[in-house]
Design brief:
The protein has about 70 residues and is an all-alpha fold. It contains 2 helices and no strands. The chain is about 30% helix and about 0% strand.
Amino acid sequence: MVKIQPMPRAYLKIPALLRPGTPPIFDSEPTLSDKREAQALFNELDQDSRDWYARNGFKPRSIIYR
């Protein structure tokens, strides 16, 4: 199961470096289709949410090749 969601709007009031981390993206070992779904969901996020995930180590282009 893939869990990518927009950053809560309340986090915008918190400086970027102090914002809480993102929730886990995968519940278990991801399959290739899970990785592709995560990449597609990430691409639909607003820029603030993309930055939030990127600061916490999510790299959408490289996720498929792991």
